[in-house]
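Minutes, project check-in
Item: structure for the 358-residue chain
Input as provided by the requester:
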Amino acid sequence: MVSWFRRNKPEAAAPAPSDPSQQLATPPSAAPSGVPATAVGDDEFANAAPAAAPGKPGWRQRLSGSGIARSLGGLFRRNPALDNALLDEIETALITADVGVAATTALVDDLRARMGKREFADSAALFKALRAELVAILAPVSKPLLIDGSARPFVIVTVGVNGAGKTTTIGKLARKFRDERRSLMLAAGDTFRAAAVAQLQAWGERNDVQVIAQGQNADAAAVAYDAYQAAQARGVEVLIADTAGRLHTQGGLMEELAKIVRVLGKQSNAVPHEILMVIDGTTGQNAIAQVRAFSAKVPVSGLVVTKLDGTAKGGVVFALAREFGIPIRYAGIGERPEDLRVFDAETFVDALLPDTLA
């Protein structure tokens, strides 16, 4: 990593292609030098479960096993008495599900005050109020990503720590945008990981999308610059730039991420139009530290929370919403492209706590 960092080109020296309209994307089927060719041809979904059912049933199917769904669901299924002990159990369940102390305390204190005013006839009424409070936390951040068709290209830069699922999320977004009949280009800006370029090219091949790449150890800012020039010359609607996964504690690499955004920003004050941070839903409260650190370097404008169908407790979504107020654009509830769902507050809460529990 150190040798790569020292070889970076100055920002002003980002090379402009002599004729961007003729710049060739790296062929999706050809792996760059040093990358195993098998990485390109692997079937991403060979062992994946079928896609979740459309609409609310799919959300319920995939999130019913989350920590918050199990703990609160089990609590209300036994028709508990309406008393302070119930509120204490709710508080414990929320904190252990990664909702966070601040958000949990505020929510439970409000419920306690309302119970003192005899607003709830029974535990079922309290359950409905709890659902409403959880929806209210998420409603302000339930904002889908809107593509400005006049931007040409509308630039999305994906960021996040190692293993959060950035490259896979890009591939799923590529499928989504292609299904919407949008022209699309990908920039292989993760030049650290040996198989990252090949993985993105595989997604490009599956979705018939051009991928701009320069191979491992290339200057990621230069890759992003070249991709922007090519996308602009060809009138592409959407450009999605991958970036290398980095720990939020790695100061030098975080500065390199800021450089990518600065280089793109020199093309237009509006670019990039979206900085999309991908969060692993299983990381719990560590996600708060990640978003805080990344937001200090680049203006994160949207979140994708992945892996919510696995061992995720689910509560971190509420913690992120309360702490930052950054729009949550998508949620990952499975491995298939169809399982990257537009985030919706009411649907999410309903999947965790179906109204039938009351």
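Outcome recorded: The chain has 14 helices and eight strands.
No further action items on this chain.
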